[in-house]
Structures are given as C-alpha cells and as structure tokens.
Design a protein that fits this description.
The complex is a heterodimer of chains A (413) and B (332). Chain A is an alpha/beta fold and 413 residues long. Chain A folds into 2 domains: 23-382, 3-Layer(aba) Sandwich (Rossmann fold); 385-413, no CATH class. Chain A is built from 12 helices and 7 strands. Chain A is globular. Chain B folds into 2 domains: 2-193, Thiamin diphosphate (ThDP)-binding fold, Pyr/PP domains (Rossmann fold); 208-330, Rossmann fold. Chain B has a 7-stranded mixed beta sheet, with helices on both faces. A 5-stranded mixed beta sheet of chain B has the order 7-9-8-11-12, with helices on both faces. The chains are: A alpha/beta (413), B alpha/beta (332).
C-alpha cells in the first residue's frame, strides 16, 4: 500500500451536464428477488434488506415475488387516479408560478407513487410528519379540497394558514398531515414523539415520518432513530432518496458505498430499501411497516429509491448541475407508466381510460384554480388583514402585541 | 424549593392524565437535583421516564407529544445544555401555533436549572434567559422561592403556550443572598417556604413587589431578588424590589408604577450584561418613565465573560456590587 500524502475525498456524482450518469451506483435488485420476512422478524435478522432493493413490478409490468401484495384492483385504480391527480396539480401550479400567480412552488414529479401508495397503507387517525414533497399524501384523499390547497399557495384571504407560510407548507391535522416547518429534519423527531404519545395513551394510531436523503445528515434524523428504537415507537421512518438535495448529490449526505436504510440497522431498527417508483412495492413495504408499528414491534425505516425529475423548486435550475436527460435514463422509470402497464396487463385499465382520467383531472384542477383565484392572491394584494400578523403568537394576545398592533394600525407599514 | 417543584409535578401528574415527565436521569433516580424523586414509582414508567442524552430529542419529542394532545414537562439537566435543542425551541415549539394558524400547538414546559454559585464552571452556571425572551411565542419564567415555584410551575403546565421554566439552582436549598462565605440559610427559616400541599397557581403575567421601598426600584428575578434584599439592608437604601417572576411576557405595569414612584431604577441579573434582559428592561423603563427618572438607570450583572470556575465570586453580582449601584443612583 502506498503511503503518499493524505488527500480529502469529496464525493461526486457519476454524471454532470455534458456526460451521462452511470446508474450502477444504485445497486438494483431484480423484481421479486428480495425475500419478505415475517413482520415480527427481529431487526438484526432482516439487516440484509437494508442493502438490497425490494421490487414487485418487473419490466413487463407483472407483480412478482413474495412482496407482491394481495390487493384489490379497485384500490390500484384509486392509486393511479391519485398519482395522476398529483401530477396534474403540480403541472398546473408550475404554470401558475411562471404566470406569476403564485410566488413559489415545489413539484414532486417522478416521486408520486411514494406518498400516494403510502397513504393507502395508513388508517384514519394516523399522523404523517411530512417534508415539502409529500403533497401526494393530501392529494390522494378526497376530503382535502384542492381549492383550499391553492388558497394556501396564493396566501390569499382564504388561506387557512393566514398567509404565514411559504407556498406548499401545508398543515392539515384533520387529514393526518402535520404542519410543514420549512426547517429540515425537525419533523422526524416530532413524529417519534407523537408515536410515543400514542403508545403512552394505549391508543392504536401510528405516525409516519418523512425526510429527504439530504436532510438525513441533520442531527434530528439520528436523534429520531435513537428515540424510536429506545421507546419502540409505533412510527414509520421514511427516507425519500431522490438522489438530489438542490444541487447536492446524495453521496454528500452519506449515501456513497452504503445506503440510507443502513442507518437504521446500526440503531437496531428494521430497515428496508425499496423501489419508490414501484406502486406495488410501496404499498407492500408500507403495509409491512404499519403492521409492525401497530403490533408493538417497533419502528421501521424505509429508504425509497426514486428520482427528483423536476427542479428542487421554482427557484432552481438543475441543468446547471446534472445531465438534462437524467430522468429519462433513470433505471427505475416513471411510476405512473409502470403502474399503468401493470393495470392494463391485468385488464383493469386502458389507454382510453388513462387519457380520459388525465383529462378529467386536469379539468378538475383547472376549475379549482379558477375558484381559488377568485379569492385573490399575495401578488394582487388580496392578503389577510394586518391584525392577523399578531394572532396565534400566543394563545391569547399579550399586552405588548396588542400595543404593537395599535402601532402598526396607527402608523401604517 | 426542590420539594415545591416536585409537589407541583406530583399534583399535575395526579390531576391530568395527559401530563408526562421525562429527561436525563429523571426516572428511577429522580433527577440530579432530586426534583422528580419518587414520581416514577408513584405514576409508572410510561409517565415519568429517563431520556437519552439529547436535548434536541427531548424537546423535539415533546413537541410531537404535544401535537398528539399530551402536556409534556421535560427537564434539561442544566440550562447550559439547552443549545442542542435551540432549533426545536426557537423554530418549532415557539412557532408551531403561528405557522399552522392554531391547527397544532405545543403546550410544553421545559424546566432548566440555571445560574451559578455552585462551582459549576462555564457549563453548569449560565443564565440564558435573554436567549428565550428574544423569541416570540415563548413564555419565560423564573421563580425565586418555593411558594412561587410551585404555583408558577403548575400555571406553566396548565398554560397552552410553550414555557421555558428556569430554576435558579442556588435557590434550591435556601434563600441565598450572595454571601457565599456565610453559612447556608435553609428555606425552613423563610416564610416563602410555606407551600400548600394542594393545587394552586401563581399567574404568569404578574410580578411581585418583594420589598416595599421609596428610594429606588430594583428589577430582579431568581437569586438576585435575595441578593438585592441583602444589598438594601446593608446599604440602608430603602429600595423597592420587584421580583419579575415571569420575564416574558412581562408585567410592565407593576414596574412602571414603581419607577414612577421612586424615580430611580437599578436592574440586576446574573447573566452577562451586553444584550442581556437588563437591556430590554432599561429600554422599557426609559420609554415609559423617562420624565420620572431622577438618575440614569444602572445595571448590575455578570461580566461579559464565560462563567469562570475559580473566579466564580468575582463574576457573581453580589450584594456589595448591588449596594454600590443603589448608592450611586441616589447621589445628587
């Protein structure tokens, strides 16, 4: 072994603008190849699953292997609709941002299967602690009004959050969706605390925590794993590895030569690495984790492998740091196309139905946008009244805030 | 005061099944200062338990529990250790109600022993209250005696806002007046140690006039209340000592009424001076009492240095320094 001078290793992605990505770094397994252990398996006996990739749909769209879920075709059709709705919603909001009707947006293009399929594995009363790319959790539900979501994006007078949050930082307690912070990773330990509370009270509800590959480098992520393990919290710990944190490749967050699922193994947590663009694999793995949580078997960490097909946000330009055709070459493909192929293969969907559903959803989103726009937007000045700025800082407004409210009202802004 | 704090938690664990208590060493052992002694045995380990050494995790998990509907009371073993929890306190607990427009709230109480005088060096002696009073959405409380400690802690646990509850550890065992070279006076000899067994509260928006006087108003809290009292006694200055009790939101009316009466004001705190809470107090007094002031407002505080181990008593603002300030503001 040569002993020259030391050098610092700074990981680099294999692809950059001008040369394509070598995706062999993903170390894919074949569909159906990975075993499905019983839900009561001890974490140490499932450690291999943190280094393989759970996949159900093969290249022909067939569900294969022990993870292939027993699932009603009607549920899959609902899932397809939820993915198409999410995609249509995102596409319309991206246009609205470019038309300067909303100030900012974050789409989840290419990642739709993860949130929409996971939502099908949860039960009413469960609570998700999302980050900013899980709008699919809300759009998979029919009881969350798209008009209201768009009012939040517009920070208008009907924004349920009173114009206080950046667009997409929703809060829907009644839909099991915790307030999005905008700070990274903080919600991961909140989810564990919420799950601990459910256990303390002898309840049956579980929590589901969400984080991106980049933010796993924050201490709150590691803290959450420790607490989840120590108290055997009924929580699912989701790491969405979409390969990119703005311009930073996942290897800079610590994904090189290991996996994010492997973080859980060291903490004594059952950990899976799953194809996040495979709707059936997402349902199957989510159900496995939910069953463990509800059965007092403790937390499960799931690393979802996917690809952020769009820009980080409307303020980002990924052509500056990664190949333009990266998503087209991503070996796990497009989750919508893969579920479509499966559904058509089993005779429960068709090209015509796909197009008709897509068109109908686009019209539905368009109508919702039109209605929300009637209530104004940040950009045309139809914003909540200034007094709301001082509300909700405390439960009851203290004297010093009442005085500041008087000041702003008497002196102007 | 330890018994009073324990009694507050005992009362609340008994009254409200949503109250849970955890932190480092607080379970079986009962805490390094013994404040939770016996509570795990009485209420079980799912309501009183030990936590990993992770202040960020302790506070972060409490926010999640509060979002579920519990009322967590967590202990940060020393106030000096809260820094890893800063993001969870400042960006999460303090703003959850605001950012979600009331959809989620964080009614949590974070107890932290603070202050020096126990040879704790620079990591077991700090008074970081100004770091909390600067954060909108938090309530910051610091009791100075057993009666208030119990009543304020119960009021804090019952309150729906996140509370920073600072406990001056030099007061745990007696009304310490800064004379470190004299024998320790136990609480049993002090009237404020009469603490009812049952539930009662001390409101979170009211300061107490600890000593009535006419010459000068002293604004103090925690240990400095007794240091200021000793200074008044020893200097012969008839000081009116206001024990703030709740630092933020502040009972400004009591302060203003007193300063308008005395025309002079000395602010005393153990924390470092620059950008300390005393700066806010001085600013508020001059905003509200400028035409009543007969002398510049004085500040007696810890120095702008880390809390030193060997030079602890040179750092600590003792009764001699406070007495000198009282005399200075009375100079014609």
């Amino acid at each position: 072994m040569s002993q020259g001078t030391l050098h610092l290793h700074v990981p680099e992605p294999t692809g950059r603008p001008g040369h394509g990505t070598d995706f062999s770094y993903l170390h894919l397994s074949r569909a159906g190849e990975v075993r499905r252990p019983p839900v009561d398996t001890a974490p140490v006996d499932a450690a291999d699953l943190a280094y393989t990739l759970v996949r159900v749909l093969d290249d022909e769209g067939q569900a294969v292997g022990s993870w292939a879920p027993q699932i009603d075709a009607e549920l899959l059709r609902r899932g397809m609709r939820a993915m198409l709705k999410t995609r249509a919603f995102d596409a319309r909001m991206m246009i609205a941002q470019r038309q300067k009707k909303i100030s900012f947006y974050m789409q989840c293009l290419g990642e739709e299967a993860i949130a929409t399929a996971h939502a099908l594995a949860l039960q009413p009363g469960d609570m998700c602690f999302p980050t900013y790319r899980q709008q699919g959790l809300l759009l998979a539900r029919d009881d969350v009004s798209m008009v209201e979501l768009i009012c939040q994006l517009m920070s208008n007078q009907r924004d349920p959050l009173k114009g206080r949050q950046l667009p997409v930082m929703y809060s829907y307690k009644r839909a099991g969706f915790f307030s999005i912070s905008g700070n990274l990773a903080t919600q991961f330990i909140h989810a564990v605390g919420w799950a601990m509370a459910s256990a303390i009270k002898g309840d049956t509800k579980i929590a589901s925590a969400w984080i991106g590959d980049g933010a796993t480098a924050e201490s709150d992520f590691h803290t959450a794993l420790t607490f989840a393990h120590v108290y055997r919290a009924p929580v699912i710990l989701n790491v969405v590895n979409n390969q990119w944190a703005i311009s930073t490749f996942q290897a800079i967050a610590g994904g090189e030569a290991t996996t994010f699922a492997a973080r859980g193994v060291g903490c004594g947590i059952a950990s899976l690495r799953v194809d996040g663009n495979d709707f059936l694999a997402v349902i199957a793995a989510s159900r496995w984790a939910a069953e463990r949580a509800r059965g007092n078997l403790g937390p499960t960490l799931i690393e979802w492998i996917t690809y952020r097909a769009g820009a980080h946000s409307t303020s980002d330009d990924p052509s500056r740091y990664r190949p333009k055709d990266d998503w087209q070459k991503f070996p796990l493909g497009d989750p919508v196309a893969r579920l479509k192929r499966h559904l058509i293969g089993i005779g429960k969907w068709s090209e015509e139905e796909h197009e008709a559903t897509r068109t109908a959803l686009e019209a539905e989103v368009g109508a919702a946008f039109k209605e929300a726009a009637q209530y104004g937007s940040l950009l045309d000045g139809h914003i909540p009244p200034v007094a709301t700025m001082f509300e909700d800082v405390y439960k009851d407004m203290p004297l010093h805030l009442r005085e500041q409210l008087r000041e702003v009202e008497s002196q102007g802004r | 005061m330890i018994q009073a704090l324990r009694s507050a938690m005992d009362v609340m664990l008994g009254r409200d099944p949503d109250v849970v208590i955890y932190g480092q060493d607080v379970g079986y052992f009962g805490g390094v200062f013994r404040c939770t002694e016996g509570l795990q045995a009485k209420y079980g380990s799912s309501r009183v338990f030990d936590a990993p050494i992770s202040e960020g995790g302790i506070v972060g998990a409490a926010i999640g529990m509060a979002a579920y509907g519990l009322r967590p009371v967590v202990e940060v073993q020393f106030a000096d250790y809260f820094y890893p929890a800063s993001d969870q306190i400042v960006s999460e607990a303090a703003r959850l109600r605001y950012r979600s427009a009331g959809d989620f709230t964080a009614p949590i109480t974070i107890r932290m022993p603070c202050g020096g005088g126990i040879y704790g060096g620079q990591t077991h002696s700090q008074s970081p209250e100004a770091l909390f009073t600067h954060v909108c959405g938090l309530r910051t409380v610091m009791p100075s005696n057993p009666y208030d400690a119990k009543g304020l802690l119960i009021a804090s646990i019952e309150n729906d806002d996140p509370i920073i509850f600072l406990e001056p550890k030099r007061l745990y065992n007696g009304p310490f007046d800064g004379h470190h070279d004299r024998p320790v006076v136990p609480w049993s000899a002090h009237p404020s140690s009469e603490v009812p067994e049952e539930h009662y509260t001390v409101p979170l928006d009211s300061a107490a006039v600890f000593r009535r006087g006419t010459d000068v108003t002293v604004l103090a809290y925690g240990t400095m209340v007794f240091v200021s009292e000793a200074a008044a006694r020893e200097s012969g200055v008839d000081a009116e000592i206001i024990d703030l009790r709740t630092l933020w939101p502040l009972d400004l009316a009591t302060i203003v009424a007193s300063v308008k009466k005395t025309g002079r004001c000395v602010v005393v705190h153990e924390a470092t001076r620059s950008s300390g809470f005393g700066a806010e107090l001085a600013a508020l007094v001059q905003e509200h009492c400028f035409y009543h002031l007969e002398a510049p407002i004085e500040r007696v505080t810890g120095w702008d240095t880390p809390y030193p181990h060997a030079l602890e008593w040179a750092y600590f603002p003792g009764p001699e320094r406070v007495a000198a300030a009282l005399k200075r503001v009375l100079e014609p």
